[in-house]
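TASK: fixed-backbone design
INPUT:
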C-alpha cells in the first residue's frame, strides 16, 4: 500500500519510497533492472505468492513505474517493462543498497556470527556435561581429558573453524584450549598455540580472559554474552581486529569461552562506506549525461511534431512530419499527418462553404431585389408582366427559405436535438409513396423511375425522418441521372430481418477521390461544379441514418453510375 504522506514529500527518495509501497515492490523493481519482464520470472526470483505479485505489479503499473505490454494474444500474455519514471528509480535503489550495506550489513552479519557461536557453545557444553569432569593427574593442577570426551570433541571440530575455544575451571585457569582463528592473534589469548593442550599454560591467560571467566562464574548465566553489541570492549589490536565472544557456565564447575574475528565484515563495511560516495557521484554524472542524451534522442520526434503543430496553428495545413521509427512516436507522427490532412480538407471545405453559401444566398437575393425594383419602377398596370415577375420573386424566396431550412435541419440532425420517434412501419410502402411523388416530375422530364418494393418490409424507425432520407436520395439520383434517363429504387429484405434500400442512377458516377467525402456537408464533387444545389441533402441523410444506427454507403464507378444504399432494421 502506498504511503500518501511520503508521496507528497519534497524529497525525491521519499516520494519514490512512498510510491513503490513496500519491500515486495522494491524486489520487483530490482528484478526489472536485472532484465526480468515476465510474471513467472518475478515469482521465481523473489519466491512471492502469485496473488501478492499480481497486486504489486498492478500497483507499479498504475503508478507509472512499469508498463504492461502484450506479447501474446492467444491466450493473452503480458510483459512488464520499466518506464522512464521506473528507470529513474535506479538511483534510489542504489542509495538503498548503500544504506543496507553500510548500516545493516554489519548488524546482520554479527547476528549470524552470534548464532554460530551459540550453536558451537551448546554442542561443546553438552559434551562436557555428558562426561562430568576433567581428571587431575598431578599436584600442579594439570588435568587429564577423558579419551571419550576428547574423541567426541574432535568429531565436532568442524564447529571450531575460525574460532578460539577454551575451557577453564573455577580457579579461572585454562584446562583445554584450541585456536583456529584466521588472524595471528587472539584478543583473549595474546600468544595462542595452534594445538590442543591437556594442561594449562600461563601465557594463555590475559587480564581480559581472567576477568571474563570470573564474571561468568559470578553471574552463573548459562547464555552470557558481553555487552557492547557482543563485541569485546577495549580490546582493539594494532591491526583493528575485533572479536565476538560467547560464554557458558557448565554446572558451576567450568567456564566455556568461544570467540571469533569480526575483522572482515568491518573492513568490507569501511570500504563500502568510503567508496560508495565516489561510486554514487560517478553514477550520478553518468546518469545525468545518459539522461540528457536519451532525452535529446527521445524528444527529437516530439519536437518535430511540436514545430509542425505550431505551423498548423499559423495556417500551414500542408506541413507533414516524417516518422523516425516504427514505434509509438512513429504512430503519433502518422496520426499527426492524418490530422493535418483532415484539418486541411476541413479548411478547404470551409472556404468552399463560404463561397457556395454566399453564392447561393446572393443569387436569389439579387433576383428578388431586381424583380422587386422592376415591379416598382417599370411594370405599372401590366398585370401579366407583374404576376410573372412576382412569381420569380416568390420562387427565389422559396429557394432562399429552402436553403436556410436545410442548414437548420442539418444542424438539428447533426446535434441530436431532433429526437427520434421510432415506430414499426412498412418501409416498402413508404418508399413506394415517396416514389409516387416523383412520378409526375419524371414523366414531364422524360425520365423513368422504377420501383421494386412489392414485399412488406417491417422496420422500427422514425417514418418522417426515413421519408426525408428516401426523398434526398431520389432527388440526388434524378439530379445525376444518366443519358438513359433511368432511376431505380429497390427494397430488398435481408436474411437477418433487416431491409436494404438501394437507389441507382446511370449517371457520370463519382470519382474515387471524392467517395470518402460525398456525405460531408457542403461537399460537392468535381462533376457537380457549376450546378445548382446546396450540398446538404446527403449530409442530412447521413445525420439521420447515424442517429438511427443504420449502416449506409455508396458504390460508384465513373462513367457507369452510382448506387446509394442503407440498411434498416
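OUTPUT:
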Amino acid at each position: 500500500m502506498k504511503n500518501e504522506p511520503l508521496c507528497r514529500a519534497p524529497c525525491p527518495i521519499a516520494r519514490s519510497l512512498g510510491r513503490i509501497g513496500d519491500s515486495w515492490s522494491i524486489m520487483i523493481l530490482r528484478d526489472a533492472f536485472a532484465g526480468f519482464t515476465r510474471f513467472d520470472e518475478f515469482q521465481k526470483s523473489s519466491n512471492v505468492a502469485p496473488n501478492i505479485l499480481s497486486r504489486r505489479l498492478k500497483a507499479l503499473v498504475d503508478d507509472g513505474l512499469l508498463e504492461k505490454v502484450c506479447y501474446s494474444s492467444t491466450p493473452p500474455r503480458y510483459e512488464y517493462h520499466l518506464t522512464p519514471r521506473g528507470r529513474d528509480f535506479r538511483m534510489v535503489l542504489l542509495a538503498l543498497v548503500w544504506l543496507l550495506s553500510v548500516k545493516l550489513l554489519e548488524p546482520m552479519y554479527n547476528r549470524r556470527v552470534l548464532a554460530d557461536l551459540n550453536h558451537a557453545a551448546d554442542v561443546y557444553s553438552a559434551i562436557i556435561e555428558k562426561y562430568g569432569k576433567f581428571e587431575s593427574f598431578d599436584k600442579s593442577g594439570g588435568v587429564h581429558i577423558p579419551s571419550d570426551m576428547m574423541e567426541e570433541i574432535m568429531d565436532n571440530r568442524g564447529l571450531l573453524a575460525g574460532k578460539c575455544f577454551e575451557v577453564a575451571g573455577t580457579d579461572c585457569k585454562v584446562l583445554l584450549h584450541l585456536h583456529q582463528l584466521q588472524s595471528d592473534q587472539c584478543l583473549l589469548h595474546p600468544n595462542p598455540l595452534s594445538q590442543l593442550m591437556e594442561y594449562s599454560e600461563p601465557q594463555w591467560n590475559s587480564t581480559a580472559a581472567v576477568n571474563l571467566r570470573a564474571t561468568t562464574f559470578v553471574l552463573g548465566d548459562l547464555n552470557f554474552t558481553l555487552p557492547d553489541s557482543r563485541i569485546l570492549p577495549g580490546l582493539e589490536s594494532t591491526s583493528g581486529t575485533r572479536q565476538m565472544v560467547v560464554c557458558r557456565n557448565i554446572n558451576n564447575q567450568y567456564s566455556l569461552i568461544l570467540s571469533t574475528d569480526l575483522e572482515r565484515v568491518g573492513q568490507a563495511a569501511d570500504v563500502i562506506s568510503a567508496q560508495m560516495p565516489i561510486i554514487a557521484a560517478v553514477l550520478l554524472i553518468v546518469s545525468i549525461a545518459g539522461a540528457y542524451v536519451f532525452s535529446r534522442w527521445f524528444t527529437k520526434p516530439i519536437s518535430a511534431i511540436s514545430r509542425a503543430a505550431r505551423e498548423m496553428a499559423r495556417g500551414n495545413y500542408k506541413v507533414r512530419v516524417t516518422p523516425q521509427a516504427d514505434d509509438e512516436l512513429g504512430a503519433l507522427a502518422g496520426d499527426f499527418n492524418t490530422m493535418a490532412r483532415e484539418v486541411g480538407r476541413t479548411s478547404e471545405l470551409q472556404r468552399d462553404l463560404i463561397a457556395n453559401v454566399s453564392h447561393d444566398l446572393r443569387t436569389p437575393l439579387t433576383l428578388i431585389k431586381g424583380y422587386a425594383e422592376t415591379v416598382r419602377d417599370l411594370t405599372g398596370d401590366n398585370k401579366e408582366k407583374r404576376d410573372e415577375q412576382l412569381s420569380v420573386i416568390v420562387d427565389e424566396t422559396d429557394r432562399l427559405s429552402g436553403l436556410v431550412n436545410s442548414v437548420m435541419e442539418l444542424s438539428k440532425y447533426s446535434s441530436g436535438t431532433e429526437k427520434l420517434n421510432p415506430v414499426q412501419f412498412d418501409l416498402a410502402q413508404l418508399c413506394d409513396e415517396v416514389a409516387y411523388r416523383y412520378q409526375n416530375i419524371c414523366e414531364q422530364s422524360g425520365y423513368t423511375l422504377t420501383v421494386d418494393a412489392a414485399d412488406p418490409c417491417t422496420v422500427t424507425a422514425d417514418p418522417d425522418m426515413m421519408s426525408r432520407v428516401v426523398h434526398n436520395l431520389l432527388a440526388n439520383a434524378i439530379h445525376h441521372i444518366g443519358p438513359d434517363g433511368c432511376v431505380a429504387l429497390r427494397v430488398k429484405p435481408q436474411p437477418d430481418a433487416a431491409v436494404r434500400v438501394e437507389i441507382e442512377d446511370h449517371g457520370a458516377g463519382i470519382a474515387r477521390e471524392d467517395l470518402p467525402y460525398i456525405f460531408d456537408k457542403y461537399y460537392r464533387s468535381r462533376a457537380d461544379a457549376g450546378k445548382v444545389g446546396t450540398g446538404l441533402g446527403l449530409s442530412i441523410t447521413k445525420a439521420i441514418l447515424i442517429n438511427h444506427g443504420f449502416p449506409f454507403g455508396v458504390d460508384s464507378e465513373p462513367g457507369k453510375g452510382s448506387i446509394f444504399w442503407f440498411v434498416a432494421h
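COMMENT: Residues 1 and 568 are 53 Å apart (CA to CA).
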